[in-house]
Design a protein that fits this description.
By secondary structure, the protein is mostly helical. The protein has four domains: about 5-75 and about 195-240, HUPs (Rossmann fold, 3-Layer(aba) Sandwich); about 85-180, Glutamyl-tRNA Synthetase, Domain 3 (Glutamyl-tRNA Synthetase, domain 3, Alpha-Beta Complex), CATH 3.90.800; about 335-390; about 395-490, Arc Repressor Mutant, subunit A, CATH 1.10.10.350. The protein has helices at about 20-35, 50-65, 80-90, 105-115, 130-140, 190-200, 210-225, 245-250, 255-260, 265-275, 290-295, 320-335, 335-350, 360-370, 400-405, 410-425, 430-445, 450-460, 470-475, 475-485, 485-490; strands at about 5-10, 35-40, 70-75, 95-100, 145-150, 155-160, 165-170, 180, 205, 230-235, 235-240, 305. The strands form five sheets. The protein has a three-stranded parallel sheet with strand order 1-2-3. The chain has a three-stranded antiparallel sheet with strand order 4-5-8. Helix 1 links the parallel strand 1 and strand 2 (about 35-40). The longest helix is centred in the N-terminal third of the chain and has 16 residues, at about 20-35. It is elongated. It binds glutamic acid.
């Protein structure tokens, strides 16, 4: 039995996007489920496009998601010698050959083939060079690439895909593909296999965009006398117009870091990603980490593409509503202490954190979060919509300001009066605060709602929220009295 070893090998040519994150997650889940290992390998051989910033972005994103790895990060460029040695082995074994055809020659051959509607692949001229011809060309110092010799076989070349079944192609259709460029650099296709062999990878779970590579790579494994890993090619993640999600065409909306910065909860985002292309086979939507590890299986990965349903110009949803839906669920139901830790980070970022929230006011802090979380969508809402609970310099939103305050000029007198009465209360509790407000409304012969809605706006800045008297008690006597007395400022 082979050890279960998976890998996640991103190319650091941009941020980690949701398609890549989903691949990482599925590999991680599989490794965890089967007691295997996950190896992180940064495939940085494309020197022109790989950047330090991308490497850091990928590492940060994985850390935020909580996708940890058992080995690595390894860097592909550090194994250049292995790649060259493997190419040399293939040449020595006679399964690769030097091809001296120039770019122009190849182009001419291609055009001729096109004209004849023949096979467009390389015509294998250099595969048939005599020993003498070869020597001559080598002596002349002509540049060459190394090509892999497609075996002289008839019939179908195939491999088994755990998700898609048997994948096959006629040997006749296969081209002697290049494995080393004329500058001596091995191609990604070869490096990737050499690294997977060295890292003893048992399962390759990756996107369907790599399937054409896989048919060639299977031949490389065979030629290098290495056992084949199990392959599983996942359907791609597409946008609503069925275009592949990519860093280049979709921008930050598909970047994992975008969701971190927008106040998403890491596990909620993993749960969303997990269901983007996989299901448990029933209606279950929410999975704890343990449940997901337990239930995840390659067989239940969808065969068709996943759709990332984001609406570019919809002001209500800045991303796929499903992503927000998962976030809301966790935000509103998760363990309050765990939420407290996440909100702490947001408060710290905005200089709103107070150490007493982790000390003698912890109970107040957690019950406040519990009170306000029901209407919130992201962690950012605690410092924006919920700012009034943690600071005095909150914004009063325009709509409730007009509706609940400015329409009633008399609030300028009523609220200071209410403040005086609230100040007198020896027990500032739910019943007393409500009794006093209703009493004043009845004396003034107005609907209590005028005071209640006005207060909500004056003390929280919001149109809607938890029950008003809960808010009063939570914010406390001093703050409420002060905010009611300051009502004139809202008319300024
Ligand atoms: N470096 C490749 C990519 O980012 C990974 C290919 C593979 O999984 O084998 O697409």
């Amino acid at each position: 039995m082979r050890e279960t070893r998976l890998r996640f090998p991103p190319s650091p040519t941009g941020y980690l996007h949701i398609g890549g994150a989903r691949t990482a997650l599925y590999n991680w889940l599989y490794a965890k489920k089967h007691g295997g290992k996950l190896i992180l390998r940064i495939e940085d051989t494309d020197e022109d496009r790989s950047t330090e910033e991308s490497i850091q972005g990928i590492l940060d994103s994985l850390e935020w998601l909580g996708i940890d790895y058992d080995e690595g990060p390894y860097f592909q460029t550090e194994f250049a010698k292995d790649h060259i040695d493997a190419a040399q082995t293939l040449l020595t074994k006679g399964v690769a050959y030097k091809c001296f055809c120039t770019r122009e020659e190849l182009e001419t051959k291609r055009e001729a083939a096109l004209a004849k509607k023949g096979h467009l692949g390389y015509d294998r001229t250099c595969r048939c060079l005599t020993a003498e011809q070869l020597k001559e060309k080598e002596a002349a110092g002509l540049p060459f690439v190394l090509r892999f010799k497609i075996p002289e076989r008839t019939g179908l070349h195939s491999y088994n895909d755990e998700i898609l079944g048997r994948i096959q192609v006629d040997y006749k259709e296969m081209d002697d593909f290049v494995i080393v460029r004329s500058n001596g650099k091995p191609l990604y296709l070869l490096c990737n296999v050499v690294d997977d062999i060295r890292d003893r990878i048992s399962h390759v779970i990756r996107g369907q965009d790599h399937m054409t590579n896989t048919l060639k790579q299977v031949l490389l494994y065979e030629a290098l006398d290495a056992p084949l890993p199990i392959f599983a090619h996942m359907p791609l993640t597409l946008d609503t117009k069925k275009a592949k999600i990519s860093k280049r065409s979709h921008g930050e909306i598909v970047a994992v870091q975008f969701y971190r910065d927008k106040g998403f909860i890491p596990w909620a985002f993993n749960n969303f990603l997990a269901l983007l292309g996989w299901s448990a086979g029933n209606d279950q939507e929410f999975f704890s980490k343990e449940e997901l590890i337990e239930q995840f299986s390659l067989e239940r990965i969808n065969k068709s593409s996943a759709i990332f349903n984001y609406r570019k110009n919809d002001p209500k949803f800045f991303t796929d509503p499903k992503a927000i839906y998962f976030n809301e669920h966790y935000l509103r139901t998760m363990d309050i202490k765990a939420l407290g830790e996440l909100v702490r980070v947001e408060l710290e970022l905005d200089n709103l954190w107070d150490d007493s929230y982790a000390g003698d006011r912890e109970e107040w802090y957690l019950s406040t979060l519990d009170l306000i979380r029901d209407r919130f969508h992201t962690l950012k809402d605690f410092t924006t919509l919920g700012r009034a609970y943690f600071a005095d310099d909150f914004t009063v939103e325009e709509k409730p300001l007009k509706k609940n305050i400015l329409k009633n000029e008399s609030l300028k007198e009523w609220f200071p009066e209410l403040a005086n009465r609230y100040e007198q209360l020896s027990d500032f509790n739910l019943e007393e605060t409500e009794r006093v407000a209703r009493e004043l409304a009845s004396e003034l012969d107005i609907k209590p709602g005028i005071l209640i809605n006005g207060m909500r706006t004056a003390v929280t800045g919001q149109l809607a929220g938890p029950s008003m008297f809960d808010i009063l008690v939570t914010l406390g006597q001093d703050k409420i009295v002060a905010r009611l007395r300051n009502i004139h400022l809202l008319f300024a």
